[in-house]
């Protein structure tokens, strides 16, 4: 396993590890939980540790930290978060700092690399209480029985992941190649499974940036079918929200399942319900993501034990309710940051019955 703490918080010790925060438009940043004590506030890319009483203030029992005048912690102004037309380079141009499509008009700060990481801080703290977990919210101990048996055996275990840019690893610092070099959620999962499985693990991450579920059925179909996966992880959705309806999305996922079982009749399926995108962006405005989540959950309820879901969206929506979107994003619109990738990994691993 890597040195990056999983899960990012737990009820064992009430310690939250590296929760991302952003001081945007105001001098307070919300925490997920009321905190008993703060151990560290630091810049994940720079490594700078900020000074209590100088760079930030915190009162025990509060669920926020405050940035005073003169603080060295970055502050994001309105013109930075929502760049006016005269001050931006719009995606997909090289060096883009903005993307069009803000609901109601205007632009949103965008970074394909580490723009948000440079302004976000991470916080280690001891919570007064933990009232929700970075874990799946559905009882699934009876799902994926063959995978669970194989995970503890010395048999070769073949896992294939199909997905989009989130699963490819975009905006994880390790994928970008900047400190602290945290792996993507897919790599964190691979590492955890490899540490648990006593036999050979063959893990194929075939996620491709910018794609949706049709890509798995057309462009790379024969490639991934050769993997003959024992577990097929389907992590599409973000790029499908504006391309198709929920019923078509489910149908394509079931077609992917059928193809997996053509080459391996015992193949089991894990569908990842993805994070919600920026509610201020036209391509991820609220509504369609919930329709996709609902139809996936409904199918899960009637499906057999060979089908499971990792409901990242439920965890993500609660984090957004408490903290807002910009503290959690890697690119400003539809990617998680390092903290978000760890939440993804912890949620998926909780379904797979793998302690982290």
Description:
The mean pLDDT is 96. The protein has three domains: 15-73 and 120-127, no CATH class; 78-109, no CATH class; 145-351, SGNH hydrolase (Rossmann fold, 3-Layer(aba) Sandwich). The N and C termini lie close together (9 Å). It is globular. 29% of the residues lie in helices and 17% in strands. α6 (185-196) packs across α12 (338-351) and α9 (246-263) crosses α10. With 356 residues, it is an alpha/beta fold. The strands form four sheets. It has a five-stranded parallel β-sheet with strand order 9-8-10-11-12, sandwiched between helices. A three-stranded antiparallel β-sheet has the order 1-7-3. Strands 2-4 form a two-stranded antiparallel sheet.
Number of beta strands: 12
Order of helices and strands: EEEEHEEHEHEHHHEHHEHEHEHH
CATH superfamily of the largest domain: SGNH hydrolase
Identify the quaternary structure here.
single chain
What count of domains describes the coordinates? 3
Radius of gyration over C-alpha positions, nearest whole angstrom:
20 Å
Distance between the termini: 9 Å
């Amino acid at each position: 396993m890597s040195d990056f703490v999983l899960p990012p918080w737990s009820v064992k010790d009430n310690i939250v590890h590296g929760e991302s925060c952003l001081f945007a438009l105001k001098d307070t940043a919300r925490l997920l939980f009321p905190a008993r004590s703060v151990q560290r506030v630091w810049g994940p890319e720079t490594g700078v540790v900020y000074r209590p009483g100088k760079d930030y203030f915190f009162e025990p029992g509060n669920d926020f930290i405050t940035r005073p005048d003169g603080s060295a912690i970055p502050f994001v102004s309105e013109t930075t978060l929502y760049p006016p037309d005269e001050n931006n380079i719009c995606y997909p141009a090289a060096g883009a700092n903005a993307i069009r499509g803000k609901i109601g008009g205007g632009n949103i700060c965008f970074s394909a690399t580490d723009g948000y990481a440079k302004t976000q801080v991470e916080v280690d703290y001891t919570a007064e209480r933990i009232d929700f977990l970075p874990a799946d919210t559905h009882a699934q101990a009876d799902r994926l029985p063959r995978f669970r048996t194989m995970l503890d055996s010395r048999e070769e275990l073949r896992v294939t992941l199909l997905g989009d840019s989130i699963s490819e690893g975009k905006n994880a610092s390790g994928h970008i190649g900047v400190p602290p070099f945290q792996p993507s959620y897919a790599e964190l999962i691979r590492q955890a499974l490899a540490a648990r499985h006593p036999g050979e693990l063959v893990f194929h991450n075939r996620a491709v940036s910018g794609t949706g579920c049709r890509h798995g059925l057309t462009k790379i179909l024969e490639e991934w079918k050769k993997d003959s996966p024992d577990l097929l992880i389907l992590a599409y959705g973000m790029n499908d929200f504006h391309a198709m309806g929920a019923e078509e999305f489910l149908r394509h996922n079931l077609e992917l399942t059928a193809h997996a079982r053509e080459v391996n009749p015992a193949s089991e399926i894990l569908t990842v319900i993805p994070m919600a995108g920026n509610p201020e962006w036209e391509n991820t405005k609220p509504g369609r993501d919930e329709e996709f989540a609902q139809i996936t959950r409904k199918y899960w309820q009637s499906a057999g034990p060979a089908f499971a879901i990792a409901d990242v969206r439920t965890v993500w929506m609660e984090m957004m309710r408490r903290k807002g979107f910009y503290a959690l994003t890697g690119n400003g619109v539809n990617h998680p940051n390092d903290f978000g990738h760890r939440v993804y990994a912890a949620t998926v691993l909780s379904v797979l019955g793998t302690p982290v």
